[in-house]
From TrEMBL:
UniProt xrefs under PROSITE patterns: HEMOPEXIN_2
The organism's place on the tree of life at top rank: Eukaryota
Protein name: Hemopexin/matrixin
Biological source species: Penicillium thymicola
Database matches in SMART domains: HX (SM00120)
Listed Gene3D superfamilies: Hemopexin-like domain
Hemopexin repeat spans: 1-50, 111-159, 164-215
Length: 219
């Protein structure tokens, strides 16, 4: 399964994290064709920040709103802010912090860990966080809840249609069009989330192994 995924700023590439390994997947500009550009490799070998914090795997990774080269990385009950430039990662803050002390809004939502996260389309500072059967929308600039915690089944028609009651990972497609890849177990689906936050199912669930040749043998 895919544990986490994020798009690499300024490139037609995404990072895929699965267990203790990661890979870099490169897309063909303007279409969904892709290939494995690097990996799979152990996180402990190629990342500077993650091993120093004891992050053996990654639960969720998402860009910092307004700072596309900076990323929030979540593992267990902790998170960190790092910067990624030319595939090199450095710390922005001083290592990892407990989610419940660094994110008052997530603590208020009852999220002591995070399964997946994404920027909220059409906003400057808002983010969606997913944990188990639930999701919440937060304002990163104020650290406040925008929409109360709700069931994914009640707020995401596209995921209901896909049969996904939970989300393992979600990542914006490098091909654009407001499309997102959503991973759940051994399947993935493509959804569209427009700037009014309306979500629709673009491509129904398929086996990851049937469409992601770059992940064959390690996801």
């Amino acid at each position: 399964m895919v544990d986490a995924a994020c798009r690499i700023a300024g490139k037609e590439e995404i990072y895929i994290f699965a267990g203790r390994h990661y890979g870099r997947v490169r897309f063909s500009k303007g279409d969904p064709g892709h290939s494995l550009a690097a990996g799979p490799t152990l996180l402990s070998k190629d990342w500077n920040t993650l091993p120093k914090m004891g992050f053996g795997t990654v639960d969720a990774i998402v860009p910092v709103p307004g700072k596309e080269k900076q990323l929030y990385v979540f593992f267990g009950g902790r998170y960190a802010k790092i910067k990624l430039e030319n595939y090199d990662d450095i710390f922005v803050n001083d290592g990892a912090s407990p989610i419940t002390s660094g994110w008052k809004s997530l603590a208020q939502a009852g999220f002591d860990s995070v399964d997946a996260a994404m920027l909220t389309p059409g906003t400057k500072h808002e983010m969606y966080f997913f944990r188990g059967l639930h999701y919440v929308r937060l304002d990163n600039s104020t650290d406040k809840i925008v929409n109360k915690v709700a069931l994914i089944a009640e707020g995401w028609p596209s995921l209901v249609q896909a049969g996904f009651d939970c989300v393992d990972a979600i990542v914006a497609s490098p091909s654009g069009h407001d499309h997102y890849y959503v991973f759940r177990g051994d399947q993935f689906a493509v959804i569209k989330v427009d700037r009014s936050r309306r979500d629709t199912l673009v491509s129904p669930p398929k086996a990851i192994s049937s469409a992601w040749q770059a992940l064959e043998g390690w996801v």
